[in-house]
Amino acid sequence: MELRQLKYFLGVAEDLHFSKAAEKLFVAQPALSRQIQQLEDEWGVLLFERDKRNVKLTPAGEFLKEEVKKLLNQVENIKKRTRQIQHGEEGEIRIGHPGSAVYSVIPELLVALNEKYPKIKVALGEILEVDLVKSIQNASIDVGFIRESPFDNNLSSKVLFRENFALVIPDNHWLNEENFENMGQLKNESFILPPKHAGETYYNVLLGICQREDFLPEIMFESNFGATILRLVEHNLGVSILPVSYKYGSNLKVRFLELKNIPEKTELSMVWRKDDNNPVLKSFLKVANMLTFGMD
């Protein structure tokens, strides 16, 4: 069996037409038919049911079609990574991040990366923090930005950014910069916060901000997404506590009262696999380590 035969098989399996597949594969139809026949003979299976009018896959053919897709994708990934190892300064890096990261570290980091390594492509994906560590562990992404550093000996992490929290209130709320004193003034308000399962440490920090003023927030709505929380606040469904960087990307009718005088801060860490030998990741980390982000 040759890889070429599997490519030929997949071409026919997707078109279910030998002539059309032969044209797309730039091979004569008789030669294509012979390759498929040789594959069937070698494996002792029937992959296609043929008559003068129709071609359809057998159950074995259906199974092989899906497996060949996976195999060819894997081969393509191997080829891509081999080229990356050879060149070092080009390729792709896949980044997972929470929504707030696009208002803090990501733009500056990508500008610096593009200036130093213009051939590196970046694939960005907003991922829930509860799923982000798993995405790094299973190699779905190369590097992630996260509020809670994971406890995993196979991962490395570095705190890049530290900032204040902010109280987020509707634009027409009675509180403002002049009359705001402490969180105790919000004890009778409804709150909109991330769910506990999305990040227990982060969740407990938010509760602690309220508990210092002797109350537990009445949580009426939960969301993992900062943009959703902001929209709910705008519609007077409650108030929230978010990293202050969210205010730089919001044009909604909400106000941010920065909580400068509390000990709690929120950190954004960069996380990656220790055993990842992708040279593009090394280039990315080199750029990240050269930058100095806000550490309020």
From TrEMBL:
The keyword RNA-binding does not apply. Signal peptide: none annotated. Keywords: DNA-binding, Transcription, Transcription regulation. Pfam families: HTH_1, LysR_substrate. One of its GO terms (cellular component) is protein-DNA complex. GO terms for molecular function: DNA binding; DNA-binding transcription factor activity. SUPFAM superfamilies: Periplasmic binding protein-like II (SSF53850), Winged helix' DNA-binding domain (SSF46785). Residues 1-58 form the HTH lysR-type domain. InterPro entries: LysR_HTH_N, LysR_subst-bd, WH-like_DNA-bd_sf, WH_DNA-bd_sf. Belongs to the LysR transcriptional regulatory family. This is DNA-binding transcriptional regulator, LysR family.
